[in-house]
Amino acid sequence: MRKKIIAGNWKMNKTVAESAQLATDLVAAVKGQPYAEAVDIVVCPTFLALDRVSGIIKGSPIKLGAQDAHWENQGAFTGKISVDMLKAAGVTYVILGHSEPRTLFGETDANVNKKTLKVLAEGLIPIVCVGETLAEREGNITEKVVSTQVKAAYQGVSAQDAAKTVIAYEPVWAIGTGRTASDEQAQAVHKFIRGLLSELYGSSVAEAVRIQYGGSMKAENASGLLKQPDVDGGLIGGASLKVDSFLGIIKAA
Ligand code: PGA
Questions:
Q1: Using one digit for the tens of pLDDT, what is the confidence trace for 105-141?
Q2: 215 lines ligand 1 (CB under 6 A)
Q3: What share of the chain has pLDDT > 90, as a percent?
Q4: What does 188-209 look like in DSSP terms, one character per residue?
């Protein structure tokens, strides 16, 4: 049985003080709750708030994630943050290849691959995001797009490492739009991704990898999605910014 993983991607939201407040409220809400131990809970604040949030969630069931990382340890890479630095701040998970950096900031499959290898080499867990645009879905090339993204990201990743990774299937047309993939649409792509992992690494790795759904997931639609056999959690944007809505999804999981 794969343990479900619910991750909040706070994106470019909240000051350090606001992030600290949300983290404090979440810690209080899940304290002593058996459901909080049954699911992996992750919060991914801005880089600026990582250190503060790290201190607040320490000793709670909540784990820390970052929204990106560079593949070098240090040096002349203005604006970037290394995996070493994230590790020192107590980060466990790193979101890579999210559609926003892919579409807005020129993130490439090749870079996602370098970052995936680096995150794994440092013992952290990548959350590798893949997903098709609306035009690609309407052009019936969803599987081709997702397959290209997965194969590129996992180039050179060993089976042993691949088994530890998390994939987030996020149809671009569902992110922040209020339009969610139906339970069946999500399951079909998740099953396809698991089949692809099986081709690449064999069935035991494919069965171990957790595949999250992302794109307008909220408390109201989470349980239908999370009931699908290949949906192992969620990567949540908007609904992770408030305690009640995030908690609703955790409870559904
Ligand atoms: P959303 O974002 O839940 O606001 O659609 C999901 C994501 O981009 O990770």
A1: 999 999 999 999 999 999 999 999 999 999 999 999 9
A2: yes
A3: 98
A4: HHHHHHHHHHHHHH-HHHHHHS
Cα 100 to Cα 20, 107, 108: the distances in Å are 24, 9, 12
Active site residue 98: yes
Q: Which residues pair with 129 in a beta bridge?
A: 168
How high does pLDDT run on average in the chain?
97
Q: What span, in angstroms and rounded, lies between the C-alpha atoms of 209 and 33?
A: 26
Give the distance (Å) from ligand 1 centre to CA of residue 243. 16
Ligand 1 atom with least separation from CA of 238: 4
Selected from 3.50.50.60, 3.20.20.70, 3.40.50.300, 3.40.50.2020, the CATH number assigned to the domain covering 5-252 reads 3.20.20.70
Per-residue confidence (pLDDT) for residue 1, from 0 to 100: 82
Evaluate whether 130 touches 169 at the Cβ level (below 8 Å).
yes
Q: Is 217 in the pocket of ligand 1 (CB under 6 A)?
A: yes
Q: Which of 147, 134, 137, 72 lies closest to 103, judged by CA?
A: 134
Query: Is the CB of 222 within 6 Å of ligand 1?
Result: no
User: Is 0.70 topped by the overall pTM?
Assistant: yes
210-253 tens-digit pLDDT: 999 999 999 999 999 999 999 999 999 999 999 999 999 999 99
